[in-house]
Design a protein that fits this description.
- The protein has 136 residues and is an alpha+beta fold.
- It has a single domain, classed as Roll (Transcriptional Co-activator pc4, Chain A), CATH 2.30.31.20.
- It is 24% helix and 43% strand.
- The chain contains 3 helices and 8 strands.
- It has an 8-stranded antiparallel sheet.
């Protein structure tokens, strides 16, 4: 499932631009959320994988560390979830509409209720596949 949403790339305190983005969820990878961004004036996409629990937590408190940090706030009377993404190439401050994030998470929780994620895959089979790939 994919949720297209308007995301603001914050360039300075007074300047931000809207960029096309989507949050994606695959029930076969139940712990992960993929954030897909379409950079302005560029072909292709930029993708970051996030923990569904972290995205949920970001609606109510500061979460994350290192290269991904998220927190809720209000900006000009609208509730947003801010996200800082950092890489060796630089960092970006993004704002997601909190209501859109909540709606997306409700859909993911309908598909795979919290606490049932582990029933969606066979951990032993996944581990065996990883070990087999590493030995080749």
């Amino acid at each position: 499932m994919a949720h297209e949403l308007p995301v603001r790339l914050v360039l300075s305190h007074d300047l931000s631009v809207s960029i096309p983005a989507a949050l994606q969820y695959d029930a076969d990878d139940p712990y992960a959320v993929r954030a897909v961004f379409h950079p302005l004036n560029q072909n292709g996409t930029v993708e970051w994988f996030l923990s569904r629990d972290m995205v949920t937590q970001a609606l109510s408190e500061h979460t994350g560390h290192a290269d991904v940090r998220m927190w809720p706030t209000s900006d000009s009377g609208r509730d947003v979830v801010r996200m800082v993404l950092s890489s060796p190439a630089g960092s970006a401050l993004l704002e997601f509409p909190a209501q859109s994030v909540e709606s997306f998470l409700r859909e993911t929780q309908s598909a795979v209720p919290p606490g049932t994620e582990s029933s969606r895959f066979d951990l032993d089979a996944e581990l065996a596949q990883l070990l087999a790939e590493k030995s080749t």
